[in-house]
Amino acid sequence: MDQAQSEGGAPRRLVTLSTSSVFPESTASGFEVAARLGFDGVEVMIGIDPVAADVGAVAKLRDYHGVPVTSIHAPTLVITQLVWRGTGHWDKLRRSAEMALALDCDVVVVHPPFRWQGDYSIGFVEGLSAVRAETGVRFCVENMYPWRTPAGEYKAYRPTWDPTHQPYEHLTLDLSHAATAQVKSMDLVQAWGDRLQHIHLTDGMGSFRDEHLAPGQGNQDVDGVLAWVLANGYAGDLCLEMNTRGADSRAERERLLAGALSWTRERLEHAADLTQRP
To answer: pTM of the prediction?
Structure first.
């Protein structure tokens, strides 16, 4: 992938903030927090509020706060399916791509389709390749997890929640989803190779609930995963996507996010030191 270069010619590692990390605050709050704490960019979760689906409004937030939009999360969650009501699933992906290009980025994060989404789910593999060719945007399919019920596992995604053995060109690793699926993120990144184009930096303990803990607070060996991917040529964003809904104030939310940002930058510095050693 194309990646911004530092003055020394090495890839510039971008640590970015998903606007979902400030939920239940707004998209505007996400940009404000990202600017205040010194994140390198923002991933816009389409559907967090009406502003997130308005490319003009997002562009104004970007320009006002001086924080670039580096990725777009398409409205493919259960709770965001009503965004752009009346628009078909493929048209939603096209609109997400148009939004990305209008905001000067080329990464759109997308979930595997749900089984009940008809032709969209049946033809997803071929259709995604076609939309990629049509728009030039990288649609990075995200790993999900099985839905567990008292009656057993419910197969919600088609063809599967795990993109490892699917012919997707570009993938997003979400470490919390890996924990919920009770798999190791390290196994995924080693299997995916250069198909890994985007990382949702988070963590989990492996409960049935998608936890989105701060990186380093779960069982996914985030430190080891970062060291491995950076040593093996990963040049994508590290997008912090953590749950701060338990914060009782903006100050507490910013403290949590600032701590995760500092933790991540320390790991990047350590990885850079290792690669520069003779």
So the answer is: 0.92
